[in-house]
Amino acid sequence: MSVQEQIDRILREMESDGSTHIFGEDAELDDLEFHEFEPMEGSAVAAVDGSSVMVEPYGGIKIAVIRAGYVVYERGERIGRNVSDMQVYRMDFRNSSDIYAEKYREILDAETPELGETDPNYVMQRLRTLEEFRYMFMALEELKEGDILLIDGALRGDRHTPDRGMALLSEMAQDRGVSLVGISKDSGIMHNGLPFVPQVDRLAEERFPRKRWYAKVLRRTSPGKEEIFVAKFNPYGEHAFRTDIISLETVSEVLGKVSWYASDIAYVGYPYPLADAHNEVIIRGGAAEDIGYMVETDLPERFHRKLDRGV
Amino acid sequence: MGIVIDGEVTEIVLRVPYDRDIQLGELLVMDDDVFEGRRYLLRVTGIGYGYEAAEGDWAERAAGSMILMDGKEEYTMYHRERRLYKEVKCLPMGRIEGDGISPVKTIPSHFSRSREPEESDYGALRRYMGDIPVGRLRSGERALDIEAGISGFNFPYHMGIFATTGMGKSNLMRVLAGSTMRNGRYGMLIMDPHGEYYEGPSNEAGLRDLHSRRLRVYSSRNMAGISALQVSYREIYTSDMASIYSLSDAQKEALGIFWREFRGDWLLEVHDHSFDELVERFERIHENTLSVLKRRVDNIFEMGIVSEDPNYSVSNQIINDLVEGRVVLVDSSGLREEEELLISSVLARRVFEHWQNLFLNNEQAFRDIPPVLITLEEAQRVLQDAKKGVFPRIAREGRKFKVGLCAISQQPKLIHEHILSQLNTLFIMGLSDDKDREKLGSASKQDLSPLRNEIKTLNVGEAIITSPFTPFAIPVHIYDFSEYAENYEEEEEGTRIEHDEGFV
Questions:
Q1: Does B66 sit within 8 Å of A266, measured CB to CB?
Q2: pLDDT on residue A158
């Protein structure tokens, strides 16, 4: 099969994919209502992110390395930073559930529901999400009414995200009058077999060239639940983003506060605190290599192999 | 100020804050992060942009956004101090050890930090700055509080001063002459064909403004209080004519005939005889050849610088002055080029032969005479041939007799490479021609390739002094002579070197 034929096949599969669940299969892009908004200065904005790497030194050993943290900005300055040390877990199919359960209890103060999978890579992702929740809770403690907590990704639970965590976070945020905003670089939303957000972006550019705008794509289903938008935070940004919001404030206020931080020249259109948080927590290749090396040199099996060599 | 991030023994790369104003040629000191007390002297040889970003095209994209948004939408750059930096390449000039500097044979430890030089670092540097200061040690464009120059001991190892017009050659020469006078331990014979050293160019000071007891001036012009420049006809050899004038083979052959016929009186004889007498006497020489030579000889006498008295000449007085450690300025600005070169050749040869004779015949006297430097403007005129004339001879043989040549030129590429290779100390100033810089780069006793960018960007009055006598090429900000003259103070007559073991 030629490359062109393979691409055609993939596109046909995408067209028949039933993954368009948010916008609604019957809806048309023309039905979207676009609104302009302006940046708003003044509120504090915290951003949380996490990162994880699976180090596999040799012999099937898997070492999960996780780090999470947050940064806080106010009036254009970073005023807070809290980033964990790297956390290291030796994981296999037998112990991954236990590690997860213990972490779940520690952070969400409850017994974990059935995990379903024991694949170390999958569990590592979930551990990372739990760690992110830990730092979301801590970040909320630093915020006051009218502030924003930015999260990398959607606010609704997915296969990695425990519903309990999101529920606790939402409740705590509303108690403090803080808005939760999840920004997704990869929205996961499809429409007519194609990525949804770029389609909205293109349409908006025709109607609102060089403007900040948003369009609601999912209404709130119950109090405390998120609303989902596609938003452009800077007229000169390259991309629009899926933006999930849980807030007591108006959408324009919330997006205005976020967009005030979307003017960094290297990340035009993307809230800089999220980029900063990402850069703070990221586990770079060198750090992962160091851990692999430490494991490799410390394991007693290695010494045995060395001792036995040439005998 | 900067931290090591990369490099090797011959080049160190630093990360320097983006807002640090750093310049090519700036001197830095690096304290080793592991080996306590170990210091390196670095010189900035390259400055580039650095970005700390995950994506390689970060800066390109940011610039694109700026262009797009300028004047239309406000933007900012968070964490500029983290994301932007300067990548600074440095030449390790040496390791500072006590009061000396040794060659670098290793690298500073990871993440060692650089800083600006401090007083405590200067001691090691001062050791190499010589006893003939010409300016201040330069760090980038900034002059440090260290006098820099050369050692008069190295005059006999020959020098070159090279710069495009207007870059400060004349100023440097006046400062060099002034410092030599102030020192009083060395002789210097300055040939000044432009008449710009004694009185100075307009609005600038000249050597006369130093009011030095150690300056002697001889001029071809009629100047009040200045000795007339005149040599005896017997001091001009036919070989001088052959090396200065552009002569045909027939003319050279005719000169040989004159010498055989008249010996040391040849010049006066040719001058005194009429053309017809010469034709009659030298039947073997073609009339046209005789005519040309006769005209040239007569011209020499017309300039009034050649005495018809065999015993009258300023040469001996000049030699005495130089022996006494004085600076002798020969102002030949009133002469045509050929005659000016002729006089310069005669005087240079007389000095050279005097020092040579003492070396050969009077060891004690030779020990007592100071090293002497003979400076020659537009030196490319007589140094294109490595063997013709007295100046190439001085470059080849002078070191042994404590006689040095200082070639001054704006076109070093025209100087014969064998001569250039004899010039151990080079003052490299602003040179606009790539070929000139390349020629000096290959002639230098130090590797100048890391300084290529710095040499290209030298300002007026800035120089790099290279020599085998210092562990690194010395960047200098030459004194402005007018300011130098205002502060000039001369001590009592200097004590001359009584025993110069190096030349015995």
A1: no
A2: 60
> Which residue on chain B is closest to A238 by alpha carbon?
B65
B53: which chain A residues are within 8 Å (Cβ-Cβ)? 266
* Exposure string for B395-415, b = 16+ CB within 10 A, e = fewer: bbebbebbbbbbbbbbbbbbb
Residue B379, in any domain of the structure: yes
What does the pLDDT read at residue A12? 56
What's the half-sphere exposure (Cβ side, CA atoms, 13 Å) at B142?
12
Structure tokens at B225: 């209080």
B135 inside domain: no
pTM: 0.75
**Domain span including residue B172:** 145-229+314-488
Maximum Cα interatomic distance, chain B, rounded to a whole number of Å: 97
Asked if A266 contacts A205 with a C-beta cutoff of 8 angstroms, the reply is no
Pick the residue of A78, A185, A236 with the most B CBs within 10 A to test the interface with B by mutation. A236
The reply to whether A286 touches chain B by the CB within 8 Å rule is: no
Tens digit of each residue's pLDDT (9 = 90 or more) over A33-53:
899 999 999 899 999 999 999
Residue B181 lies in a domain: yes
Q: Which of B66, B69, B78 sits opposite A272 (nearest CB)?
A: B78
CATH code for position A75: 3.30.2170
Q: Which of A178, A146, A180, A175 is nearest to A161 (CA)?
A: A180
Provide the pLDDT for residue B497: 47
- Within a domain: residue B501? no
- Domain of residue A212 covers 26-50+68-84+146-308
Mean pLDDT of chain B: 90
Q: What total of structural domains would you count in chain B?
A: 3
Work out how many domains chain A is built from and give that number.
1
The answer on B263 and B407 residing in a single domain is: no
State ipTM: 0.74
Statement to judge: residues B208 and B257 lie in one domain: no
pLDDT score of B499 = 45
Write out chain B residues lying below 8 Å of A263, CB-based: 73-76
Residue reference for tokens 């509080």: B145
